[in-house]
Amino acid sequence: MTVDTPGPGPSDDPADEGEGEGEGEGGGGEQDGGREQVDSPAEGQHLEPGPGAGLSDRDVAVLAVERRGWPGPGAKERAIRERLGISPTRYYQLLNALLDDPRALEHDPVTVNRLRRVRDERRERR
């Protein structure tokens, strides 16, 4: 029976999407072209970078260490040296710079905002 409209609908949509890709590249079909521009990898990378985009592996690891709760400063310092291979002083320098980096805020907003509040409170006390 031809009463089942859901069957032909979905089969028509993929065909339209396939045609929209060709037309989007050629400049035809404003509605389909608009969708294709958002989905195209080149423009998608510039418009909506993924989580952690632009951060180095080390920067992501610094945020991961800071996100975790530590029983005391000794354990945290050992973990910094073992996992990151840097001194705690260098770690805190990198962390402070990350707090001002919008890419870090995008990657881990909870941790970055918490640390910004702590930093601001300490600065106000001085």
Overall pLDDT: 73
Shape type: globular
User: How many domain modules?
Assistant: 2
Cα-to-Cα separation, first versus last residue: 80 Å
Reading the helices and strands in chain order gives HHHHHHHH
- The tally of strands reads 0
Helix content: over 70%
Percentage of residues in DSSP E strands: under 5%
Q: Strand pairing plus helix content: what structural class? A: mainly alpha
Q: Please, how many helices?
A: 8
Radius of gyration: 24 Å
Summarize the helices and strands and which ones pair or pack.
Layout: H1 8-26, H2 30-39, H3 41-47, H4 57-67, H5 73-84, H6 88-99, H7 102-107, H8 109-125
Helix pairs in contact: 1-2, 4-5, 4-6
Descriptive account of the structure:
This is DUF3263 domain-containing protein. InterPro entries: DUF3263. Residues 1-59 are annotated as: Disordered. The protein is mainly α. The chain folds into 2 domains: 8-47, no CATH class; 57-125, no CATH class. It contains 8 helices and no strands. It is globular, with a radius of gyration of 24 Å.
